[in-house]
Write a structure and sequence with these properties.
Strand content: 15-25%
Number of strands: 10
Order of helices and strands: HEHEHEHHEEEHEHEHEHEHH
Helix content: 25-40%
Radius of gyration: 20 Å
Mean pLDDT: 95
Distance between the termini: 59 Å
Strand order of the largest sheet: 2-1-3-4-8-7-10-9
Oligomer: single chain
Low-confidence stretches: none
Largest sheet: 8 strands, mixed
Shape: globular
Length: 288
Amino acid sequence: MATAKDFQNHLKPNWCPGCGDFGVQTAIQRAFAASGLEAHEFMVVAGIGCSGRMSGYLHTNGFHGIHGRALPLAQGMKLANRALTVVAVGGDGDGFAIGAGHTLHALRRNIDMTYIVMDNQIYGLTKGQASPHSGVGFMTKSTPYGVIESPLSILQLALAAGATFVAQAFSKNPDELVALITAGIRHQGFSFINVMSPCVTYNHFNTYAWFTEHLVSLASIEGYDATNKKQALNTLLDHHDLVTGLIYQDREKKSYQELLHGYSATPLVEADLRLPQATFAELLAEFG
């Protein structure tokens, strides 16, 4: 059986020392090992940004897409090869700004895959601009007088869009993150996991200490039921989205693949796509 180290390649990550993405990478490797699958059975699709480097640091099949387009690429790969366990990774800028439309429709479409977002409330790779998750008043190079727009509530949006697996974690708490990624991979449908992953270089407000003080574990809320969407939404509202754990899971809703008419049980990569000669001749005759 594969171990976490088996999912790490020879490339040394060049994230800033202390970046939360190190913890996310370690958690992904541990979760992949816990799945019982081998490296060649995974496809990791990344977007653009610091988090986008993830696909190059893991010993799996990997694809580094363009800005905001990790999800359509990942969904296409899953539909073409249903045998693959597909995991898309990105940041809050990649997924909630230029890729926001793709994120919304992936949440409601419910293709069987996992989406992990490393949320640092800032654009790190481009040297510190405000992201859709930056708080009001947050001062950056692009907002020298402070952010005046309300931050996007992606967790509430996910519930409203009909997502069947919604979770949030903190890169400082690897055991919980590993458990959530493992559960997300096993979930039959689209799994969305938002990870608070502090940027130690450009975001000096949303720090490890800040998250440690403000995040509330859902496990500490007596009677919390992750199958109750109304309770999940009210809990997010009560705690301003600053919770960790499994927020909501719907095990009853069928995945996109289960509902797609004519979706072959044979992966497209293994299908015989040759056109019978008689059919080819018939098509040519139409243009005669």
